[in-house]
Design goal:
By secondary structure, the protein is of the alpha+beta class. The chain has a single domain, classed as Alpha-Beta Plaits. It has two helices and six strands; from the N terminus they run E-H-E-E-E-E-H-E. It has a four-stranded antiparallel sheet with strand order 2-5-1-6, covered by helices on one side. Strands 3-4 form a two-stranded antiparallel sheet. Helix 1 packs antiparallel against helix 2. This is Nitrogen regulatory protein P-II. GO terms for molecular function: ATP binding; enzyme regulator activity.
């Protein structure tokens, strides 16, 4: 099993969710986060004064899938979240050793 974490622009959430649902992904977790990458934030003007916005709002999507599904899920997220502009985000994949569904006690891939 693999954990796929994707950091995306907030307005892309519905497109990514719909694309993952189309693949048969049954559940995901979404967290509102702030951060910056290469763009290092940006400047804005408020009431005539310029100020720096160091941390930009993003969403973190987490989904656990069987290892054989990773490439397909990563490609789907990437295609759905892409705008072609700076700040589109990143996708990280890590291994999951063990999973348990609390309600039923099912473990590992059965818990997904």
């Amino acid at each position: 099993m693999k954990l796929i974490m994707a950091i995306i622009k907030p307005f892309k959430l519905e497109e990514v969710r719909d694309a993952l649902t189309g693949l048969g992904v049954q559940g995901l977790t979404v967290t509102e986060v702030k951060g910056y990458g290469r763009q290092k934030g940006h400047t804005e003007i408020y009431r005539g004064a310029e100020y720096a916005v160091s941390f930009l709002p993003k969403l973190k999507i987490e989904v656990v899938v069987p290892a054989i599904e990773v490439e397909r899920v990563v490609d789907t997220i990437s295609a759905a979240a892409k705008t072609g502009q700076i700040g589109d985000g990143k996708i990280f994949v890590t291994s999951i050793e063990h999973a348990v569904r609390i309600r039923t006690g099912e473990t590992d891939s059965d818990a997904l």
